[in-house]
Every structure is written in structure tokens, then in C-alpha cells.
Amino acid sequence: MEIVRQPIVVVMGHVDHGKTSLLDSIRNTSVQKREKGAITQHIGASEVPIDIINSIGKSLLEKMKFNLKIPGLLFIDTPGHEAFTNLRKRGGSIADIAILVVDAMQGFQPQTIEAINILKEYKTPFIVAMNKVDLIYGWKKKNTKSIMESISQQTPQVQEDLDNKIYNLVGKLGELGFNSDRYDRVLDFTKEIGIIPVSAHTSEGLIEILIMISALAQKYLENNLKTDQESKGKSSILEVKEVQGLGTTLDCILYNGKLNVGDKIAFATLDGVNITTIRALLKPKPLDEMRDPKDKFANIQSVRAASGVKIVAPNLEGALPGSELITIENENDEEINSLKNEMNSILKFTSGGDGLTVRADTLGSLEAGIRLLQNEGIRVGRVNIGNVTKKDVVETCAVRESNPLNAVILAFNVKVQKDVEQFAKENKIPIFNDNVIYLLIEKYTKWKEEMLQEEKKNVFDKLQPIGKIKVVPNCCFRMNKPAIFGVKVETGKIKKETDLINERGEIIGKIKGIQVDKTSKDEAVAGNEAALSVDEATFGKDVVAGITLYTYVHKREGELYLDKYASQLKEDEIQLLLHILRITKQKVIR
């Protein structure tokens, strides 16, 4: 039977901006109602039933003339980036909608931007909860959970300060490609992001958070929320945990269908797909009873989407957080091949190549990281899950032969043991480690730029210059030994100690000195007029007014230019180089 399930809501944001506080405030407010639908605690999730949402937000719903039909909201509790990157299903995320928490006083921080990049990548709709508005100077806590009621009772100065902070966020979101405004000023939520001021500390704004998330999910995501509760269960593995007396267990979010004790399940490992049978399904007792550790979990026989659940079964070792877990009929179930194909599409980079080596803590993190790297045009070679190993270093060393700028390891939210770190240093393999994906990419990009600049300084800048000059009329200052005459640099550049050739490819002499504006220089560039001192040349014989001369470039250096440094040359410089190699009869393969 097809029904509409509750939306899965993930809460994201920078550390210390109040993600957990906001969830705690929602839970505490809901529990205080003590109604028959009191909030239920799941594994990694908290469910707020619709009767509580209707009760808390009754006045706002009446004002909006909106009738909620969804059964409630399922908030994901998992902290950090795992709250999103682990909520995977084929082709995207199981999160239906997100709340991005931003500290009103601190604004955007690194993990805020990371969260937005991930939300954008997975095309997940979100609202912004601008938290800690109670810290605005002069803010007075009001006896309401509605932020609009509270704002209306604040002084004009506080209201102005609040608006300034909102428009700071509007500006930042604009830089990242989003239109936004305070939620009550938004006319079309498909085109603008709603910003809701809130205080997790005072609970002001909780009404608007709950109602807006519910209303937006119901209005725009209804088709996504339809599920057949009697169909095969599909879950996302949040965590793999060792539990005393139970062994390895899986904390999962069931997003479609149902799970039963005795069901056959399949899940991915790095070595392939494992199949086992569910021995037990566990769920915590309701939140207000969770303080009693002696009676923490309840054994259940069946669970339906959307729900969090702990799965107990044999042979769960090797399960990958962030991967899918599905129920199957038998070992020939076509879903197994689908699961294998999904894994292969993500782990296909393990075949090697001259791309970067990437390590991540979960499959979801790895997938997000690969997508963001590819979006930046960065080639990925080897990928894996778990801590960096010496084998990673050895395999990365092989990349150095073909592409030294890709001979690095990116470690996302994983550990690098000291012996591995030392081994990498000995082999001159950089390891970049961070728990924010885009900062990791920034570190690598900065290092790559530094390496390119160093290479340019040590190699590119020492290559013979590519230059074309024209001898200026009436500017011969000395006939020979050395000849001194005026020129204009038309393309590229010239340097001291560079041989000059004529149109026939014959060397007519070496530049011994350059003056630009009567000042001695080591080089002159396109657009400069200069006086050159050239030994072995005689003015009137080898050099005449109006003649075009070129720098001599050896074939070996010409190939270096074309193979490695073409991106650092202008198109007219490349064409000039090819002309120089042609007139000097030095063929190169391009």
C-alpha cells in the first residue's frame, strides 16, 4: 500500500553554530507536550509526529491557511558531514530537505560553505536557520516560540541589527549562486532560499522552523515522499558499531519499504556484496525514557519507512557507512547486481591511473569528494575507505613518473598514523588531511600552484625565450664588434645570451646586452623598444633596418614548451615557436 511517509530532514552547519542545540530544542519542546504522539527516538534520528507539529504551530498554520497531511518529520541526529554524506541511495541522497544552521554572530564559516556545496551537488532543497539571534545586543526574550511575534516586540534598533545580519547572509548566499530573503518575504520558495531567525537557547523561531520545513516538504516534495510500506526495504547505513553482547551492528535509516526479522539483506563491502539474515531489529524507547540505560532498546519484529533502526545479524563486518542495505528474495536477486554496479561506479578509480589518491572515512564522503574534485577538473586515480596506509604511499610514488603534480594523497576525515606520515615524507609524497572537503581541495590547489610556480622558476623561465623583433630604422649606434642597434619586440620576449636568427634560420649573433629606456635589462618583452648589443653581427650586412629577427630555440626546448608549458604560452607565441622550428628545420611532433 502506497502512503506518504514523513520527510527525512538533515541538519547541517559549521561546528558550534548550534546544530545539536537546535535539535535538542525541538526535541525538548515536543516532549514537553506529553501527547499520545510524543517524540520517538530512533537510531540516528528523532521523529516528531504531525499532531505535535500541528499543536505547536497551530496559530501560524491558521494564518497560512495550510493543512498539514504528512505524518511528521524525521530529523537526522548524526553530527558533522556524516549527517549528509552517509545518507546515500543510488543516484543521490535520502535526505529530502535540509536545515542549514548559521550562527547569526559569526556568519558563514568553512563547514557552512562545505554544507552548501554538498547540498548544491545533490540538488537538495534547504532553508537557513540563522541561530543565536538572542545574542544580538538588546534582544529581549519573549514568552513565545514564534520568531515573528518576538521580533515585533523588540526595539527598532534590534530589528534593524537583525535585518543587517539577515542581509549579510543574503549577500553570502548570493555569492554562491542562491537568491534568498527572510522567509516571510519570499514569494517563490522554488527560486529563493528562506532564512528563518531562531534561537535554540530560548526556542524562539521553533514554530517557524517546524512549520516551514513541513509545509515546504508537503508542497514541493510530495512525489518523493510516496512509498509502498510493504515493498522491499531500502536503507542507508549510518554507522557500523561493535556492541557488547551483540557483535557488529548496523545503524541504518530505512527510507523505503519495510524490514522484518528473518529477512535476507545485502550490502556492499570493499571486497564485494555480503548477504546475511536479520536476527534482531532494535529501536530506542521514546526519548523521555532514554535516560534509563538498563532499558535502552526495544526488540521489534518489523519496521517501516521512514525510520531509524539498529540491525543485528551475522557477518556484518566490512559494511561501509554511507552505502545501501537492501532486502532480497535470494542470492540471485537482480537488486544484488544493481548494488554491485553502484559500488563499481564509485570505486572504479581503484584501477589506478595517474590521478590523485583519495582516502575517506565513508562511502558517502568518498563519493562527495570525488564529485567535488571532478567539478574542479582534478583527476582522481586511486580511492579507498579508511586510514591512509603505506601501500597508498607506494602506489602514489608510481604516479610521480607520469604526473608529479598528481603524486599526492588526499585524506578526508581519516587518520594518518605517524609511521605512515614518516614513510610518506621519506618518499616525498605530500599528504593533505582535513575534515572539510573543500578546504582539502583548497590545500591541494594551493600546493599545486606553488609547485607550478617553482617549476616555472627553475625550468620554464630558464628555457630559451621565444621572441620576434624588428630592427628600427635610423637606430644604428655601432656597426660591429659588437653591433648596437634599436629594435622593437613584437612577440614574446628576448633575453641576454640568446642567439638571434634571420628568416632563413641562420644564426647572426648572440645578444650580449639589452637597454630599455637607457637602463640595462636582462630581458625585454612584447611592446618594448630596446637597444641591443649583438656580437658577431655586422650592421648593414647581417642586420639592416626593417629586418625581422627571431630568438633561436633548440628542438629539445621546443618540445618542452609544447608538451608541458603550452598552457603558459599565448597563441601567438605558440605560432611563433612553430615558425622558428620550421625555419631552423627542426621538426617536432605536435
Give the CATH topology of the largest domain: Rossmann fold
Q: What is the gyration radius calculated from CA atoms?
A: 33 Å
What is the straight-line distance between the termini? 64 Å
Which structural class should the secondary elements be placed in? alpha+beta
- What sort of overall outline do the alpha carbons produce when their principal axes are compared? elongated
Number of strands: 34
Q: Provide the CATH top-level class of the largest domain.
A: Alpha Beta
Helix content: 25-40%
Overall number of domains: 4
Strand order in the sheet with the most strands: 3-4-5-2-8-9-11-10
Descriptive overview:
The protein has 590 residues and is of the alpha+beta class. It has four domains: 2-227, P-loop containing nucleotide triphosphate hydrolases (Rossmann fold); 229-343, Beta Barrel (Elongation Factor Tu (Ef-tu), domain 3), CATH 2.40.30; 352-454, Rossmann fold (3-Layer(aba) Sandwich); 462-583, Beta Barrel (Elongation Factor Tu (Ef-tu), domain 3), CATH 2.40.30.10. It contains 15 helices and 34 strands. The protein has an eight-stranded mixed β-sheet, with helices on both faces. The protein is elongated, with a radius of gyration of 33 Å. Residues 32-37 and 288-294 have low confidence and may be disordered.
Describe this protein with a few key phrases.
8-stranded antiparallel sheet, 31% strand, 31% helix, 8-stranded mixed sheet, 4 domains, single chain, Rossmann fold, 15 helices, alpha+beta, Elongation Factor Tu (Ef-tu), domain 3
